[in-house]
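Bench log. Compound arrived from synthesis this morning; before running ITC I wanted a structural hypothesis for how magnesium ion sits in the protein. Inputs:
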Amino acid sequence: MKNLLDEAISRPHIGTLEYQPKDFKPDVDVRWCAGCGGFSILSPVQRMMPDLGIPKEKIAFISGIGCSGRFPYYMDVYGFHGIHGRAIAIASGLKISRPDLSVWVATGDGDNMSIGGNHFIHGCRRNVDLNVIMFNNEVYSLTKGQYSPTSHKGQITKSSPLGALDEPFNPAALALGSGATFVARGFDKDRAHLQHLFKRAAEHKGFAFVEVYVNCNIFNDGAFDSFAKKDVREDKTVMLEHGKPLIFGKEKDKGVKLDGFKPTVVSLTDGSHSVADLLVHDEKDSTLAFILGNMTYNPEVPRPLGIFQSLERPSYDDSVQFQIDHEIETKGAGSISELLKGKESWEVK
Amino acid sequence: MKNLLDEAISRPHIGTLEYQPKDFKPDVDVRWCAGCGGFSILSPVQRMMPDLGIPKEKIAFISGIGCSGRFPYYMDVYGFHGIHGRAIAIASGLKISRPDLSVWVATGDGDNMSIGGNHFIHGCRRNVDLNVIMFNNEVYSLTKGQYSPTSHKGQITKSSPLGALDEPFNPAALALGSGATFVARGFDKDRAHLQHLFKRAAEHKGFAFVEVYVNCNIFNDGAFDSFAKKDVREDKTVMLEHGKPLIFGKEKDKGVKLDGFKPTVVSLTDGSHSVADLLVHDEKDSTLAFILGNMTYNPEVPRPLGIFQSLERPSYDDSVQFQIDHEIETKGAGSISELLKGKESWEVK
Amino acid sequence: MEKEIVYLDEITVRFAGDSGDGMQLAGKQFSNASASSGVDVNTFPDFPSEIRAPEGTLYGVSAFQIKLGSNSVNTHGDMIDVLVAMNASSLKVNIGNLKAGGMIIASTKGFDARNLKLAKYDSNPLEDGSLSKFNLIPLDIESIVKEELKGSGIHPKIVRKSKNFFALGLTYWLFNRPMEPTVKWLNTKFKSKADVLEANIRVLTAGWNYALKNDAFKNQYNFQPASFEKGTYRNISGNHAVALGLVVASKKANIPLFLGTYPITPATDILQYISGYKKYGIRHLQAEDEIAGITSAIGASYGGSLAATTTSGPGLSLKIEALGLAVITELPLVIINVQRGGPSTGLPTKPEQSDLYQAMYGRHGEAPLPVIAAASAADCFDMTIEASRLALKYMTPVILLTDGYIAQGTEPWKIPTMDELPDLAPKFCDDPKNFAPYKRDPKTLARMWAVPGMQGMEHRIGGLEKQDITGVVNQDPDNHQKMVELRQEKIDRITNDIPKLEVMGNPEAELLVIGWGSSYGAIKSAVDEKLKEGTKVAFVHLKHMNPFPSNLGEIVEKYDTILVPEMNMGQLKNILQARFIKPMIGLNKVQGQPFKTSDIKFKIDEILSQKEVVQ
Amino acid sequence: MEKEIVYLDEITVRFAGDSGDGMQLAGKQFSNASASSGVDVNTFPDFPSEIRAPEGTLYGVSAFQIKLGSNSVNTHGDMIDVLVAMNASSLKVNIGNLKAGGMIIASTKGFDARNLKLAKYDSNPLEDGSLSKFNLIPLDIESIVKEELKGSGIHPKIVRKSKNFFALGLTYWLFNRPMEPTVKWLNTKFKSKADVLEANIRVLTAGWNYALKNDAFKNQYNFQPASFEKGTYRNISGNHAVALGLVVASKKANIPLFLGTYPITPATDILQYISGYKKYGIRHLQAEDEIAGITSAIGASYGGSLAATTTSGPGLSLKIEALGLAVITELPLVIINVQRGGPSTGLPTKPEQSDLYQAMYGRHGEAPLPVIAAASAADCFDMTIEASRLALKYMTPVILLTDGYIAQGTEPWKIPTMDELPDLAPKFCDDPKNFAPYKRDPKTLARMWAVPGMQGMEHRIGGLEKQDITGVVNQDPDNHQKMVELRQEKIDRITNDIPKLEVMGNPEAELLVIGWGSSYGAIKSAVDEKLKEGTKVAFVHLKHMNPFPSNLGEIVEKYDTILVPEMNMGQLKNILQARFIKPMIGLNKVQGQPFKTSDIKFKIDEILSQKEVVQ
Ligand SMILES: Cc1ncc(C[n+]2csc(CCOP(=O)(O)OP(=O)(O)O)c2C)c(N)n1
Ligand SMILES: Cc1ncc(C[n+]2csc(CCOP(=O)(O)OP(=O)(O)O)c2C)c(N)n1
Ligand code: SF4
Ligand code: SF4
Ligand SMILES: [Mg+2]
Ligand SMILES: [Mg+2]
């Protein structure tokens, strides 16, 4: 005997699941500034969605407040534009109560790492099956340009006219330290790679965290130029691929090798090192993930992009379901009238 | 020209600074249960205090809510019993505005890692010069026994009668991932070691985090017995000492060695390994700290106790002071009347 | 000696001792046994905020008070008839409430030098004659118990811990209550601990026999059975009733339940009950904080569950921002706030009614929502159902206020059958063509509800102001005015969907007492007693605080003088004055203690005598 | 053509265009130049919540309105006299507020096919005769500017961006305002960008000259200088005034300032100003969230700083729990809440007055604290000083309410000298022997203040209820009642320490208008105009909301009919009704827009005409 909700949500999907990206575009203006890095997330998300083969009505996007917070309005699926910092908490309640849904979170560096930091770290450790995309523009944009927890030390913003004093978070390291199972990073200049990362996140059963460097051309233009600009990109970044050595450079002429725990750049052309000396990526090694995560702000090595870690662990929502099923299996579905009566009731006649 | 506050707090200390531990005991009953692990923190703190040579009036203890929250009442220095989860935020405001003080935080696993998680991770990255002692009893005690974010999976508590489903935080890993400069761990059974850790924390200029396993004999009795009980202790824990190899065991007959990044236990007596093979602790190596931190819940290796990491980085409060001094030095102390006038004032005659 | 059986209308018993003395257990057993044997019972556990305060101290005293009677028992009793005092401190802190002539059963071992000193007694009150106006029965319970169990081989620690069962046995004899329920309970509880089981049962029986045989106990007391309606009953606390109410509401709504919450005294019990209900298919999240508690519930509500969050004062303060989100997204949500003494951490284990303002007014922006309050432990069940009904029918968050007194205190509850309870089934929209997220039911003004998973109704909602009907983000001035007014109007209309108030007492009275929440019992008793004395007084009790019942205006107008007793500084009074533009008199007890019947009676007398003087 | 100079009393100008058109800048320059040349000025920036809404859209219009006049200008003007419209959308959304006969200066390039379509115009209003009742001046500003800078080698992008300076030059000529302040400002601003500097100055001058020479501009308007008191003036916004107020308050208190805060619209400016004040020795923390913002401030207050936190609605909701902590620890703390449209995220860039309830009542437990409100941009300075005074003198958190209207709008401010301002120095206890943390000043009931670093006064405070005088944790019922009453009494006594209200207008009037907060300007103007028309109306404006000034009761009693206009659903009205048990009339505009003078006048007329009918 299904309850009303089960009944309402279990009606068979009518029509095709062979979606086109445009099927995910609602009929509204995108209210981001022209040139905003946010577009570079929106488009790969819309392109990737058809690949999932999930009915549109089974997908929900939850957001907090910030420029990223508007994301749900731009996806023609279910959407909830929450309050500042709480997207993961809202999404957790949704997913735990509705394991049938594909639940996504769109959040910002301020939304997720400043006011929402607690929900983020608990999301990581709890491993609720959410896909979290963090728009990291290293600034608070919607409030017009204050420094954020990922702004670099010394950054001049409207609220740090003399330079920010805080050490920034390293989002990948924070996620790993919090126990996240899936941690990845991409940037707005490489939409194809982002599409791949989002797909992998969707496939991951558990909490998937994808940090995306997005340029805010209004309040922090060029924040990522030092490694993301076309001409330097290949020399200043390295792509992480499971089972592959860390090779990079325009000419694929450099690699990353470990000196003890210390990653260092070596040349593959000066005869000193060969590919065999290089660090080989392993998504399942959480120590390696941490070493790679720690390369983030290290100017001597390229910035890693890709999947730092992808571990399997039961998701929280699955565990809840399992516990319920197990209880019912071993003890029988509870009888409400017995619950109400308890063990010490009496009759008045 | 000193302001009123400077004037009030810069009066010379009268009398000796050669304190005795009892000088830090106020005339009140300690309202913890008999046998509570909290006593094992209170006593080494009181013993260590005289070593600091700081006038009592320059010391402040800030706490949140929980059994640990009562700590300030038991120290005859300045004390503030705050609200749940906010001790680090309160203490940060105090320390930033009053760099002359020695500011301590007493908090619990719930207070600091559950509701207070956000302030904790931001405290770590910001590196405000606080000394944070976390009473980790792996349970919420003051509210009479619910599971906490450090409770182990499957733990039966009043709010998890069927077993907790959450993966616990690994506090050391979380602190490291958040960018903490000083991360240490001790346990209630070894007060001398705690005293040493607290002293080191006090000496550390920056955010010092000391996790202490404390037994709650009412709601989670024996939580740490598997490695902390007298008979197994030496075989199940390993002490981290800077520059020293990781040797442990009742007979000092075992050691920890790295297999790649994987710590493994080796015997020093079966001829297979010698001390030279062992991992040597280095407080300055943050990758090593993470590897050691990750040993926490690994049943195949002993549980590490001691100082995981101690790095030097300017403290936030120092940076604030530096920025103020630098501004005044380069631009001159601001004139209020000019500030009020601004650049576009006019006269009405 | 032949014992006389004396029939009583009602009596108040208080078990008091050290936190480790098992007084809560004894009290609970006594009340269960009493209730199940046909008398009416009302209880109040009263314990310190320390987990285990140092033994023997004044602040470490833990007590459990029970009033029993053959007529309807509304409070746990003002003054104590029989005090069980296990040590000197427990005598000291409770003696002030003992009736002249009342009985003290004192365990002499708890009056040794150390205990006397801790209790700050200069001489032993059991011996110095200072208790002469009471019926003092000092017993060396510890020795009696030891004697009883001698040779049993039971561990001395267990022997010592069974003292409370001796006291319990005594009182069972004294009030002629059956021991069977307790014996049954012991059998289940200590199934696997034969020694504890044996000790407790033997000691319990020893208590009974001691009273039976000892001359100090002259009378045995008894009650006419209370006149309960036919049905199945159990003793229930308010927190337990809320937990059951949530489960039942979700069954009656025929949608799943989700509880998102964070532990806090005195609300934690609700989470603890719910966490054991997995076999009823119930999901919950013990969240990282109160904010995640309520926002996860909002997420679940968005997903189509009956969503709830539970808390107490400091936690409610943290949920405020999210409450506004639930208001503007117009999602059903039940917020249960178990009030305790404030401000700030305040008196965490003590009851108060000081969160009414916050429930009514405590949000930024214009964010109206229904507020209701439970009158007693058992009423918490009905009010939880009512909160769920309003939330689902009107698509709105609803705050239910209870407090530490009724949350932890118990009374007999007639267990309802599912058919007696209202149908709460929500209407999910099933017509994509006609769907718009802010289209409203013309009668209730509730917006349409479609949840993820329903094809063709994909839509976006959020915290920004939205256009009427379409729900699209909108900043138009007139639209904002309209939406603010619609949200207000929706709540106002609930007035017509809640029962009118019935005036109790004398409708011709000059004085009307208006009560709310847990003070119901004390006010009702006071008014009943005054009526018996011939005083003309009337009484209404509010359960719906926002909106008020439709006839409250009429009623307020009718009475010359209005008294509003509250465990706060006059919050309801102020709200009523603003609404009905009529001055009222407050009786404001802010002591972390529930009202006594006598507090109310005294105030009624005072008002009426002043009125006479004036006339 | 000879131009005629026409003298005006007052006029309202609105610069409107796309978010990228630099209208905020033009408006600001215009108001500064006007004010510094001796007229009174009141401004209101009105921009969308999108950062850069798509060009040409209706919701992307950004506007800046200035009213200038020779008499005291209290509002930014109801209706527009001169509208500068840089594109079709900006005409569309503003035309409704343009007076009949008003002037439209339209930039024709903004009315091309694309712009017309985005503005949803079917035909070009500049050409289709639909604007015939206005004085329409279409100009091809873009071509004129291009022409002007031809051959200068300046980048076309810079040329295009300088359009707003052309419009500014035009209006400078039109209202005979000096260009020098703007030229000076440009020189500082673009010191290192010679091309931008040159372009802007040339275009500005071109605007002036164009108007001078073109026949479309028949008249030049001028004003008698406003009658300002002697002194130094500047234009100031409410947020800027708060920032300066905090700095000055700390100097007058002679203790350091600490601001703990988190950015939120429209309060962020305050943080931004303060963050640049390091050379004044000021410390602040841009915290991780609002809770850390306020709790870090509490920590700093505990340490002896003047501590403040700034926020807006959603942030205030998050600070609620900590506010209770400040109340019970009785620490000085200034909370500045810049109100915006609610509930929830609501209308983040629009003003509203709907957080009054929350400020007054929005805490769990009995947690009274002073609430004050600023009446205008410049008044924000005085009220910040007042908030600091009350906080330090009474050892209490104080909430200062402003709103998005006065926070961002500007008016001329007479800069005070330090001597004119009250001494705010707190008294730190300097007598360890006599010290107890909850010993009180017999007059103010403020508790003693000793801070870490002071020898011999080491003590502990916190959120649990505490014993009178000693501050030791205490759960005694009578003590709790006493402490609750003391905390209330302390706040109540402030009544005697704040100015009595002065009734403006006709003291014999039948109708009293009671205002609060930013609606001061509109109400004052409306009442003044009605008085001029001979209507008997009186007006008081509240700046102290809790406690009220001591003579408010008297005043309320005196008047038959009371009107309370508010940008909410009647919050002050309700509070007044509860307090003075008198029905009042609300005028409730909840549209994210400040009151117009005409809104108030209309309501006054309505009330008075109904009264006549009744009589
Ligand atoms: C409770 C609350 N506090 C503060 C704000 C103001 N606020 C809105 S967005 C934002 C920061 C956004 O930064 P980020 O998450 O990095 O988003 P971005 O705009 O950069 O994408 C802030 C502080 C708010 N809306 N609510
Ligand atoms: C805002 C708020 N939420 C919840 C509580 C209830 N509460 C008090 S202490 C506590 C947990 C304490 O756990 P922990 O920090 O581990 O301290 P312990 O008692 O175990 O030392 C909780 C949930 C509270 N006082 N305030
Ligand atoms: S302000 Fe920055 S982040 Fe926001 S929409 Fe514009 S470019 Fe994007
Ligand atoms: S309950 Fe546990 S943690 Fe709290 S005081 Fe007792 S033993 Fe210590
Ligand atoms: Mg950002
Ligand atoms: Mg704990």
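What the model suggests: The first strand of chain A starts at residue 59 and ends at 63. Residues 316-331 of chain A form the longest helix (16 residues).
ITC booked for Thursday regardless.
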